[in-house]
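Lab meeting notes turned into a lecture example. A postdoc, R.K., suggested we walk through two folding results consecutively so the class can see how the record format repeats. The first protein's sequence and C-alpha cells come next.
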Amino acid sequence: MRGAMGGPRLLLRRLREVMAEPVSAQARLDRIVIHIAANMVAEVCSVYVLRSDGQLELYATEGLNREAVHLTTLTTSEGLVGLIAEKAEALALADAQAHPSFSYRPETGEEIYQSFLGVPILRGGNTLGVLVVQNRARRTYSEEEVEALQTTAMLLAEMIASGELQSLAQPGQSLSLQKPMALRGSPLSEGVGLGHVVLHEPRIVIKQLVAEDPAAETRRLDQAIAAMREQIDMLIARGDRYGAGEHRDVLETVRMFANDRGWLRRLREALESGLTAEAAVERVQNDARAKLQRQTDPYLRERLHDLDDLANRLLQQLTGQGAAHGGSLPANAVLVARNMGPAALLEYDRANLRGLVLEDGGPTSHVAIIARALGIPAIGEVQSITDLVETGDPIIVDGATGEVQLRPPPDVEAAYGEKARLRARRQEQYHKLRDVPAVTRDGVRVGLHMNAGLLIDCQHVAEAGAQSIGLFRTELQFMVASSFPRLSEQYALYKKVIEVSDGRPVTFRTLDIGSDKVLPYMAKMEEENPALGWRAIRIGLDRPGLLRMQLRAMLRAGAGREMRIMFPMVATTAEFSQAKAVCEREIEFLRRHDYELPTELKLGVMVEVPSLLWQLDEICGLADFLSVGSNDLTQYLFAVDRDNKRVAARFDTLSPPNLRALKSIVDVAARHRTPVTLCGEMGGKPLEAIALAAIGYRGLSMAPSAIGPVKAAILATDLKATREFLTPMIDRPDDLVSVRHELRCFAERFGVPL
C-alpha cells in the first residue's frame, strides 16, 4: 500500500469531498469506487448492496462491465461476496477462483482477475452490503490494506443508512435496512400500538469520520478511556447500580473489558487508519457486534451487551451525546430501548406514547408494572431490537401476543389497524357496562375491584367501573424515587390516593420489596433464591422502622375514614400477629400525639405462601379479610418460576390442584365469614374469572383494562351450571392436567364472551 498510512487518510479525505458534492446517488457511488480502486492500486472496485429480499445487488463498479450494475445479484449463500455477507468477515485471497465458494458471473467480465479482497459494509453489527477490490495479478493483501478497506466501508454504511441509495433500487425492491421484520418477545402489557420508533437512548451520531490531526485524536481517545474508567470505578465504589435491574457484577464485567489489552490495541489500529477517535470506537464495536451476533453460545452473546455498554460509555465521553430522552414525544411514538427504569417511563409524555419495546425486561419487571398501570402496550425480551430499528421506522406492537412488526407491509399494517379499531369498539362496549353491576345470569353478584400502584391509576377508578381499589401496591412509589420516600411524601401520596378514589374503599398493601423488586438506593442482597428470601413482610419485621413509618403514614392519611391495610408474604400466623402489634403501637403513638385516627381499621393478609393453606382457620380468626395473591401462590405451589420460559408452561392456573387450593381458601373463609378477594393476574382473565366465581370467589381485583372483559363474561355466565360442570372435573382422581379446554368449550357453547 502506498506511503505507509498516508494512503488511507488521503482516500478518506477524497471520499469526504465526494460525499459533499451535489451529484446524484449513482454518480457519487461511481466516483467513490474510482477513488478506492486508484488508492488501493486495484483494477477493480465494486459495491454490492443487500436488498430486503436477501439478494446482494451490484450497485457500482470500476473495472467490471458497467452494464452489470443493477443486473448482477447474488444470494447471501452464493459466491465470495455472499460468503462475506453471511459471515460478516473480511476475505483476502491471492487466487480467488481456486476458492470453493467462487461463483463466476459472465456478464461482469471478472474472470481475468486473480486476487480478491472483500469486506462487509456493517452498521450496528448488521451487514448492509459488501465492498470488493480485485487485481489481475496474484497479490497478497496486507493487514493495513484490509484495515483501510474496512474503514472505507464505514462511509458507505452511513450512505446506505441515510436512505440515499433507496432511489437506485429496482421497482418493487427495497434495501435491507428497509425490509419488513416480524419479531417476537414476551407480552408485558396488553393492547395494540401503531406508530414510529423513538429510541430511548438515541444512537450517537458521529459527525466526523476522518481525522484532521491523528496525534490529537490519540490524545482524545486516551483522555476518554481514562475518564470512562474513573466513572466506572466511582460507580462501583459507591455501590450504585446503573440502569434498570443491573448491579455491581455488570459494572465489574464492564471494568474488565475497559482494561482489556486486545480491545485497546484494536482501537489504536483503527485510529492509525485515519479515523477520528469516535469513528474508531464505532469501527471496533461494529466488528465485535458482527462476530458476537452470529454466535450461538448464550454466554458469548451476553458479552455483546457488556461491549455495547463499554462502547456507548466511551462514545458519550468523546461526543457528549447519548443521554436518555424524556419529556415530550412526537405523535404516535413507540419507545424502543435495551432496558428502562420505571421512573424513566413516567417522565415521557403519555399523550403521544403508543407502545414500548424492550430487549430486556420480563413480565414482572418494574417497567412492565408501570406500563400496565399506564395502559401502554408493551413487549420485552425482543432480541437485538435496538440494532434493528432506526428512529422513525414504522412499527406495530401487539402486547397480547408479544409480536412486533417492524416496517410492516401495507397489508399487515391494515390488518393491525383493523385489530386496533376492533379493540377500541370493544372498549366502547365495555364502557357502556361501566355502571352495570357484575351479576351472573342466575343472580349472583361478583365484586370487581381494581389493582393500582400509581396516583394516575386511581384517577380512573370510576371510569373503569371498579367497586374499589382492591390492591394498592405501595412499593411503586419507592421504586420510582431516587431515595427512600420520607414520611411526609408517603403520607401525601396515600392521602391523595384516598381523595381521588371517588369515595371508594382502598386496600393498601405494605411494602412488597425484595426478590426481583430491588430499590435503586438499597444495597442488593446476594441470595441463592431471592424469591424465597428476604422480602416483603420479612423485611418489615426485621427492619421495623421501615414498617412503622409506612403504617404511620397510612393511618394518618386515613384519618376520619375506613382504612384497609394488608401485609404481603405472610407465612405464619405469628408473622401476622407481629405485624398487627407494630400497627397497634403506631395507633397508640398517634393517639398520644392527638392525631385523628381512621374511623375503622381493617387489617388483612395476602395468602400467597402455601404454608398458610394449613393455617386458614387460625388466620381467619385473626384477620379482618384475606387477599389471595394468585401469582406467587401458584408458582410456589408448583415450585415453578413463572418467568422461566423453560418451566413456566409446565403448569396451568386452571389445573385441578391449583383450583382445589384456591377453593380451600374461599371455603374456610366462608365458614368464618371472613371476606376474601383474589388480586392476582388470574382474576383479570375472563375464563379464569368465571372458574373462580364457580368455586366461590365473590371478589376479584385486576388491572383497570381487564374489568370490562371480565364483567362481560360474568354477565353472560350461568354460575350454577358452570359450578356443576366444573366441580366434578376438579375432584376427578385422574391425570387431567388442566380444565382449560373443557371449560372454554362449555363457556363458548353458552355464548360467554372470552
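The second example is placed directly after the first for contrast:
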Amino acid sequence: MNGLGTSPGIAIGKAFIYETPEIIVEKIHILDIDYEIARLDSAIEEVKKDIQKLYDLSLDSIGESDAEIFNAHLMILEDPELYSAVTKMIKDNQVNCEWALKKSAEYFISLFEGIEDEYLKARASDIKDVTDSLMRCLLDIKPLDLSQIDKDSIIIAQDLTPRDTIKMNRDKVSGFITKLGGKTSHTAIMARLFEIPAIAGVKDIFELVKNGDIVAMDGENGEFLINPNKEEIQIFEKKLALRDVEKEKLLSMKGKPSISQDGHKVQLAGNIGSVNEINHVLIYDGEGVGLFRTEFLFMDKDSCPSEEDQFLAYKEAAEKLGNRPLIIRTLDIGGDKDLFYLNLPKELNPFLGYRAIRLCLDQEDMFKIQLKAILRASSYGNVKVMFPMISSIKELRDTKSLINGIREELRKDNIPFNDDMEIGIMVEVPAVAIQSRKFAKEVDFFSIGTNDLIQYTLAVDRGNHHISELYNHYHPAVLNLINTTIENAHKEGIWVGMCGEAAGDEKLIPLLLGMGIDELSMSPSSILRARYIVRNTSKEEVYPHLDTILNLATAEEVEEYLEGI
C-alpha cells in the first residue's frame, strides 16, 4: 500500500488511531449580541494562553526558530481582519459566535487553499488549526492526550497539528500516517524536524488500519504494510539499517565544499518563506538563500506592510546569513495568490494575467516601498534582488528605472545601501528563455523558476488532476530551454541559478551540472543530499551525454536515460 512519503525513514510499530472529536456547529439565532462577542473574546484569551504555553514548551524541545510557528498562530488569533469578520457576522445576522467563526474561517481557509503554490497553500492549515482550537474551546471539546501512547507507536490520524506533535511523547512515536496533508504541510515539516518517518494522503487509512495493528512504513517512498509477515519485517529492518548508513553519509557532507569531481563549483542554497526558516538553511549547511518568497509579509494583513516592517524583515534575514547570499524575490502575487485589500479583478486566465511584475509595475507606490526596503537592507549583508514573471525587456528596464530613482532618493537622504547590489530575473516564461542572450545583457544573474517554466512551456496547469501527469520537468522542451538559458547567460558573463522544485531532483542534478548550472536552491532538507551528488559527479563525464538527452523525444526516455548515466 502507498501514500505520499513526506518525511524519510523506516519505522515498524503498533498503530495508534488518533481521531479528534468531530466539531459540529449549529446555526442559532441569538438576541444578545454582546454576550456572543464576549464568549468569543473569552475563548480567544483562553486559546491565547494555551498557545503561549505551547510556545514556551517548544522553545525547550525544538528551539526558538521552529517555535515561531506558535507565534504565527498567535498572530492569526489576534488578526483584526478575522476578528472583524466574525463579529460583523454576529451583528449583521444575529447568529451564535460558533457559526460566525465557522463561516469566517471557511472563507479565509478557501483563500489560501486556492493558491497553487504548495508552500503557501499549506498555510491554510494554520488558520484551520487556530480556528478549530477556538471552536473546541467554545464547545468545550477535549482532544485525546497523545502523551500517553505506548512505545514504538505509529500514529494514524486525519492530520496532525503543531500542537499535537509538541504535546505528544515523541520518544514513543515511530512514525505518522495521515489521511490528509502533503510535503509542505505542518505535519510533514514537524515530522522532518523531529526525524520521524511520515506518510500523507492515504484516503482510506481508517478503513485499512485498526488500533494495535503492526505497521511497517517507509517515509521516503510512501510504502507501508499492515501486519507484515516475518520476511516482510526483515526487509524493512534491512532498509532501516541502510537508512542509518545513508544518514551518516549525508551528515558527513556538512562543512565540505559543493564541488564536482572535476572542480565545478555549485552553490547550494535554500528556499524560504520567512526569516525564521533561515535556521533550517543553516542547520543543513546551506550556502545561502536562493529564494526568499516575500508574499508572507503581505498576506494575512488588512493592508500592505510598511517600508519599515519590510526593511526590518530583510535586514534580519541578511544579518542571520552573514556573508552568505540572500536573494529576495519581489512580490509574486496574483494568479493563484490574492490580497483582498488590493481588490484584484477576477480573471478568466489568472496565470496569464495581472500578476507578479505586471501587478507591481501597475501598483507602483506599493512596489517602490518594497524596493526601497530591499535596498536599505542591502547594506547589512549579501543581498540580491530578483523579479518574477518578467516576459519583456521593457518590464525589466522599467523596473531598473524605478530602482535607479530610489537609489537617488536614498543618496539624497544619506541612507546607506549597497550601490552594487546584484539584480536578477526569474526565467519562468518561455519568451525569456528564448531571448535569454538579450536579457543577460541587462542583469547580473538568472534564476530559473522551473515550476512556472514547465507550466507555461507545456501548457499544463499542474493543479489540474486530470492532466497533472503531463507536468514533467524531464520533458525535452523544458530541458532545451534550461540549457539555452544557461549557455546564453554564460556567453554574456552572468551566473545562473535554479529555484524551482526540479533543483532538488536527484536524477536531474548531474544533468544540470553538465549544462554548467552555477547555483541550485531547494528545500533546506535536500541540501546535503544534493551536495553528495555534486561531489560524486564529474561535469566533464556528463557533458558528452547532453546532446543525446536534449534530442530524446519524451520525458520518459529522458528519465530512463538519466537513470543509466
